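I am writing to request your help with a piece of structural work I have in hand. What I wish to show you is a protein chain and, alongside it, a tokenised description of its three-dimensional fold. Could you please explain, in whatever detail you think fit, how the structure tokens follow from the sequence? You will find the record immediately after this paragraph.
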Amino acid sequence: MSDHISASAHTFHIPVMGTGFTIDSPLRVARYGISSSISLVDDVLIEQIRKYYCEKENEPYEAILNGREARAQRITAYLNLVDRLVARQVKALQNSPFEAGSEISKYYEMLPDDAPLKKTYLDMLKMSDASEKKMAKAKLRKSAVPGSIDVNIMTKLDRDHYRKGELLPPIYADAMSALRGFAESTLSASIVFSAGINKRLYRYMTEFKDFFPDKKGALKKKIILKVSDHRSSEIQGRFLAKMGLWASEFRIESGLNCGGHAFASKGFLLGVVLEEFKQKKKQLLEKLIPMYAKALSAKGEYDGKLPENFRITVQGGVGTAAEHSFLLNNYGVNSVGWGTPFMLVPEATLMDEVNIKRLMKATDDDVYLSDASPLGVPFWNLRTSTSEDLRRTRIKQGKPGSPCPKRFVGLNTEFTKKPICLASRTYINKKIEVLPKEGHAPEAYATIEERVLAKACICHELGGNATVPLGIDPDAVSTVCCGPGIVDFSKIATLQEMVDHIYGRLSLLTSSDRPHMFVKELGLYVDYLRREVDNSPTGLAANSASFLEGMRDNLFKGIEYYQALSNDLIEESRESFLSGLEKMKAALEALVPGKIKV
């Protein structure tokens, strides 16, 4: 049973990816001190994976059948299993011999070269005194702690449930049940909340003691807020603090240069956001701690130490050791998330053989910001995935849409009293039928119809990435929601190789002319703004004219910030960085304000 949250020396983490890619990543990487996150969206998939590992590891298994508490119980049971298995793996690793290729040697060889523990390990290898070496090994065995087994809840996916036509209480909603599943598990880890605030979900945390500090001020379960800007972190942090809940980490993610759902901000570029966090970190603490202390005092349950700090982490588009180091050193972040590149590391993530081969060959045109998500949020998609093959085949056969086997994104009531999914066959058929009667302008009709047909069954088909390679459902198709940075990588890598790439001990890049991650994100925003401007005359833009004007202004400000920042970059990359900025600036200037009409 877990009794601590990881204190690993690694400076990177693997973020949640889809529902299937990282569903068992802790069982693959946690023993090496690498933290990763499990999605709690799909409890059906979670139950399938639990059954698989129980059989593989000779653990007792009893199916948890459908019912009010099934979702929470399935999640708790799986997380407890992962907790036990990782503890078992860590014990075996700690007891393994210090020899070439052993588990404990692999643990220390993968650590960053400047980590104090790495130096201790290298010094031990050089020792000649047997007694001294034995003591050093004993210390190293105890210091080989696992990475954190974190979980992720997408706060927007909080579908209410009905039983015999009656709406069940909110605690049985999807996100609420998932939270309860984590809260009642044995894990000492963090829960990551993504996609914005969910007030009823946040309030529900106050019913579980593990989210509150013990007498020493320690938290068994911590809260991570995934945010895109400083304002969001303050709003959510204050909301939690007033209830005696502490946000232990703000995980900053690029609005567009990421995988999966892309939540475009108003042109707030990643470097600018990081700079604001860097400048206002102390100020934010000074606002949150008094609120937190007051709330705990009111509960009369706390006389321990208040938190003095929190972690700032970042993810979204990083691809080189130089970028990784710059984020750590210039902005003082505690960890950098590496997601998409790990899709080509079978030791760390799951993906079926057909899709991983297609991913290796992916071009810029293959990886696109699609309308596939039933949530109505832009979604990074692999055009050549088996899921996309099936979606196009269904359209050709005159049977568009998914049979919707799981309904996790059943949130629309346009045609039905009970919410259904925009990717379902029921919804798409009804929508296509009424489209001609809705009076759309001729120039907009084709685009609207295309957007309706673009919706994909991402909740079930993202799970195919796990069920196919594990042999649970060999015939399933898989959605691949890689970030645009996947085109910079084109071969299968071992875990050791990818970690060595992150720390600059080797390079896995496909080509040397890859744009800097900041320039890449800027280009994605320019492309996004251009599409919005092009869609504005037909009324198909997702944002208002004032929002787009603000986005354009913020992008110009971001370019100015990056131009000044270029002096801090290594000399060999400065010239290409600046030329990339100039190219993006010219493209942005071409999007004149007069064209933005919504």
User: Anything to note?
Assistant: The two ends are 56 Å apart (CA to CA). DSSP finds 21 helices and twelve strands in the chain. Residues 12-94+145-341 form a domain with the TIM Barrel fold (CATH 3.20.20).
